[in-house]
Each structure stands twice: as structure tokens, then as C-alpha cells.
Amino acid sequence: MQPVLTENWLASDEEEALFMHTGRLARYHIALGLDTITAIGQVAVVCKRLLTHAVLVDRVACMLNFFLARLVSMQRQLIVEWFYG
């Protein structure tokens, strides 16, 4: 006997698939961020002068301000939700 497929079942199946996809993307971005931080750390050990160059300092500051504005400004585009278990 096959299960009866209902719209609710399909919706929850799609929601679960979207949840799993979002989780995979989050893991990918976290891994990429950690690799980037590791690479910058290795460059800092070898060549400290590169990381203190005015152009690079300005670019990093602009990038951080861009993301900070999207997290906490009045026109928030990124939303962080805290869940306590």
C-alpha cells in the first residue's frame, strides 16, 4: 500500500529540502571563511608589511563596514537569529 501524497506532505518535504540545502550552504561558507582566515594568518607570518599596506587596510575596512551596515543599520538586509537550546 502506497502512502497518500497530500499538499501538506509535499510542502513539508520541500521545506525540509530547502532546510538541508541552506545547511549545506552554511557549512560551505563557514569552511571557506575558516580557510580564508588561515591563509591570511599564514601570509601575516611571512609578510607582515603586506597586511599593513594602506590600500589593503582600506579595502578590508570598507568590506567590514559594508557587512556591518547590513547587519545593524536601519535598512537591515541580513538577519541574524539567536536560538538558545
UniProtKB/TrEMBL annotation:
GO terms for molecular function: ubiquitin-ubiquitin ligase activity. GO terms for cellular component: ubiquitin ligase complex. It comes from the Eukaryota. InterPro entries: Ub_conjug_fac_E4_core. GO terms for biological process: protein ubiquitination; ubiquitin-dependent protein catabolic process. The keyword Transferase applies. Pfam families: Ufd2P_core. Keywords: Transferase, Ubl conjugation pathway. Residues 12-76 form the Ubiquitin conjugation factor E4 core domain. This is Ubiquitin conjugation factor E4 core domain-containing protein.
